[in-house]
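Morning F.,

Quick status update on the modeling queue. The single chain you submitted on Monday has been processed. Sequence for confirmation:
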Amino acid sequence: MQPYGTWPSPFRAADIASATPRIDGARFVGEEIWWGESVPDEGGRFTVRSSSGEVLLPAPWSARSRVHEYGGGAWTADAEGTLFFVDARDQRVYRMRRGERPQPLTPAGPSHGGLSMQQGRLLAVREDLTVQPHLRALVQIPTDGSAATEASAVHVFVQGTAFFAHPALSPDRTRIAWVEWSGRQMPWQSALLRIATVGDDVFADVRTRAALQPEWVSDSELLYADDPSGRWALFRLRIDGLDAAEPEPVAASDADADTGYGLWVLGNRWYRPLADGRIVAVRTNGSDEVVVIQADGTVDTLDTPASGHVSVDDVSGSRVLLTGGSATATAGLWCVDVDSGVVTSVRGGTPADPAWMPPATPVRFAGAYGSVHAFDYAPANPDATAPADEKPPYVVFVHGGPTAHVTGAASAAIAYYTSRGIGVLDVNYGGSTGYGRAFRERLNGEWGVVDVDDVLAAARGLAESGRADPERIAIRGSSAGGWTVLSALVRGGVFAAGISRYGVTDLRMLAQDSPDFEKYYIDGLVGRLPDAEQLYIDRSPLTHAERIDVPVLLLQGADDRVVPPSQSEAIRDALAAGGIDHEYVLYPGEGHSFRRAETIVDALERELTFLGRAFGFTPSIPAARSGSESDA
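Structure tokens below.
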């Protein structure tokens, strides 16, 4: 019999850091499968690996894009096995044949991302922040190296100050389609589907709400996702000459689910057409399911482990490559044969032991604005039990974005807590994706209100249900989630401790520092400056830091360009001035997320130590730490 929080656990932070690489895209290349993967032990660089066991991209090269700041689509390959990638250091595109050194294909200066090989052509999204105004473009890059020193050799399909994504070249190479938005609104608020004749002007602007991922299935037929009914669904567009017909829904009936997601990164794919007319697609309603849409529009569920943030990365014949999370296994890459139903785990996807990994129980709580969705992970350890009269401490997880969501996927990072006797409640507050446009738009004008009310309601509901000790509930979040953490602590009365990872603390600072991609994001979430300046002041946790009366842990990347260290340091100084128990940790070399193994280890161990101190228990973790600068 041992108190919650003190249970001995086999889950070490070092194991979690090395065992949970991020998968970034996958491709069929000849008889092999290639995929992108982070290497935490090598500073978090991204390599490309093959199913033959080969590391295709050696150190120090790292495939990582900074287009739109969040990047995505940093590599692709042709059928012959040539790798094309964006190097993290200079953002140029490189060509690498097996056994050869990478050769640059683009000149220095602009950044590239969203790479794709289509009809034998290398397409990319280009962003040039070295000129004023900043320019973005959809381009075709010669693969012979001629554009490495001669920028004019790059073919530009479209260019301007707008934002572009998902270029799609028709099979006969005469038409190109893409998604475009102005930047005054985020792409999930309003995005246009545009179609042009290659080398000519746009001939069709398709009426859409929030278009995603155009895909040609023939020279005259285009698929894409849109959410005119409030749920992203697939549509078919037939084109005759220079005329586009009215779009038609692909599925025979509407689904209470989304085939689509917030367009934060450029590499995601929510569906892929098969050669025989069927479509493999992801549908999200909280968690994900993978379906096959038949040629007649009927829909069948495909039995796969993938159930969270699933990307349909590639297809070959009846085989499909899926990356994402799983409710029953670790995150990974799977190859699924649509006809036979055979599922092969290519990378990750190790079945989770239910004795150690608690099931994600979907729960809903009554909030001021409607239902609040969450996944409950109760403490689980087959070798430990707590006293019968003790209720477990809990940590409420708050995702970032805020236009993002969690899916109930198994996670070694969650098991790190639950195996020690600390429950986790992972919340999808109003504004999260995965529940339709109406739920997403609850946050319009109400950031710092709806999200805060929802996490407070979830924590209260958890305590009232008897599943958690009401005196020992903490809150933890990153980026926009860190904002919600600090805003909830300002409200007071519910959370006994808070952990903010690179969290927003002051809206005026955020508006000043935000990169182009989300420069006007706050306009929709709060209001436009200068008219809304007082609201910016009133909503910011920094303004009311003196109301925080519980311990706070602040974790921050020194190289973060989305939420710079000045945000965390401002609240640190305010907490210090008020005599509030706090700790601030700055991680050199880290940006807007933690990628290095030493950082991941230090952050997890530091969080657990912090919770033990706040809640009065001694957790079972190693004492040694390194790789950070800390003050408390």
